[in-house]
Amino acid sequence: MGLQQEFWETPSAHIRATRPDHPVIYAAPEMLQASARRFIDGFPGLVSYAVKANPDPVVLANLAAAGVVTFDVASPQEMAMVQSAVPGAVMHYNNPVRSVDEIAQSVAFGVTSYSIDSLSELAKLAPSVSRRCEVAVRFKLPVAGAVYDFGDKFGATADQAVVLLQEVAALGFTPAMTFHPGTQCTDPAAWRAYILAAADIAKAAGVKPARLNVGGGFPSHRQSGNAPQLDVIFSAIKAAGVQGFGPDHPVLLCEPGRAMVAEGFTLATRVKAIRDGAHVFLNDGIYGGLAEAPLMGTIDRTTVIRPDGMPRTGPVLNRVVFGPTCDSLDRLPGTLRLPSDMVEGDYVLFHGVGAYSTATVTRFNGYGALEQAVVFALSV
Ligand SMILES: *Cc1c(COP(=O)(O)O)cnc(C)c1O
């Protein structure tokens, strides 16, 4: 992915010129930078990017160009990707379970912040990590609000967090706190509950955290007509910070993945077959760029175009949509509203699919070879 990269005007211009028979994902640097600026301008604190949502160099470079300097990494491989795409980036290593080898590599990469949720993992960091580093205690609450809840896997209980925070401070690290409300979280009350709980934990520990990392989980636009209200969430976070900790609250930090990159990408799939006038078979599905559909629900923001790039505008029909593999699970949940004049060879474009799509693609059954093309605009 070098400087010689070719730019296309729009997805339809690329489709008209190349008639791809494989799925293509279109990246729009302009949109990536706009999403980054929305966080930088709107969030009441520092903004980090959770690399796992989409580690593509185009993403990392454009977020950096828009002013993102901090990246949340979970593995040495992600550290290497960040270092090569954004030399000098600040890295936060927020996977709370690490091998001794991984810790040694993180020190070599110059990581400056770690999160932990157990005494055993803190003990593993202590011998090799500089006391100039920040160590954030990750805790969890039984809060609903996200489509997918990470709470089950990571996070100390509030009682454990009190002890961990004291231990971090006693070891001489810069104490901080963190949580992650789960992904595609649309309810500001989730952040509020976590921030107020963080204040209680800090008070019980008698430790003042330097920073409070409110995680990722910010929602992207998945259902048409229902754009998420990030500003409402930002204000709720700011208000809760002041309510919980007072005006002298810890520096707030967020680490969005999904909401930073989703809008920057559109996936073009091709209609392989329409069987019995009802069942649509696409050349990509849940083992490819639409991997999240079974877990998160289908993205219904679609446009259908002909191979010459012209949109189909017929009245919509609810269709059952299958992916290309021979696995019967390879089906989008529910039905998708698609134009009745759509025919085989047309393209179904899914909008807002930049997160957890290219990052998790498989080559199951010989499918999943996603081409990535860069466009000036995602408008069809
Ligand atoms: C995955 C993850 C994120 C990003 O989550 P999104 O829902 O994509 O915003 C942020 N922080 C941590 C610790 C994560 O594991």
Automatic annotation (TrEMBL):
<feature type="modified residue" description="N6-(pyridoxal phosphate)lysine">
    <location>
        <position position="52"/>
    </location>
</feature>
<comment type="similarity">
    <text>Belongs to the Orn/Lys/Arg decarboxylase class-II family.</text>
</comment>
<protein>
    <recommendedName>
        <fullName>ornithine decarboxylase</fullName>
        <ecNumber>4.1.1.17</ecNumber>
    </recommendedName>
</protein>
<dbReference type="InterPro" id="IPR029066">
    <property type="entry name" value="PLP-binding_barrel"/>
</dbReference>
<feature type="active site" description="Proton donor">
    <location>
        <position position="326"/>
    </location>
</feature>
<dbReference type="Pfam" id="PF02784">
    <property type="entry name" value="Orn_Arg_deC_N"/>
</dbReference>
<dbReference type="GO" id="GO:0004586">
    <property type="term" value="F:ornithine decarboxylase activity"/>
</dbReference>
<dbReference type="GO" id="GO:0033387">
    <property type="term" value="P:putrescine biosynthetic process from arginine, via ornithine"/>
</dbReference>
<keyword id="KW-0663">Pyridoxal phosphate</keyword>
<keyword id="KW-0456">Lyase</keyword>
<dbReference type="InterPro" id="IPR000183">
    <property type="entry name" value="Orn/DAP/Arg_de-COase"/>
</dbReference>
<dbReference type="InterPro" id="IPR022644">
    <property type="entry name" value="De-COase2_N"/>
</dbReference>
<comment type="pathway">
    <text>Amine and polyamine biosynthesis; putrescine biosynthesis via L-ornithine pathway; putrescine from L-ornithine: step 1/1.</text>
</comment>
<dbReference type="InterPro" id="IPR022653">
    <property type="entry name" value="De-COase2_pyr-phos_BS"/>
</dbReference>
<dbReference type="InterPro" id="IPR009006">
    <property type="entry name" value="Ala_racemase/Decarboxylase_C"/>
</dbReference>
<dbReference type="InterPro" id="IPR002433">
    <property type="entry name" value="Orn_de-COase"/>
</dbReference>
<dbReference type="GO" id="GO:0005737">
    <property type="term" value="C:cytoplasm"/>
</dbReference>
<feature type="domain" description="Orn/DAP/Arg decarboxylase 2 N-terminal">
    <location>
        <begin position="38"/>
        <end position="262"/>
    </location>
</feature>
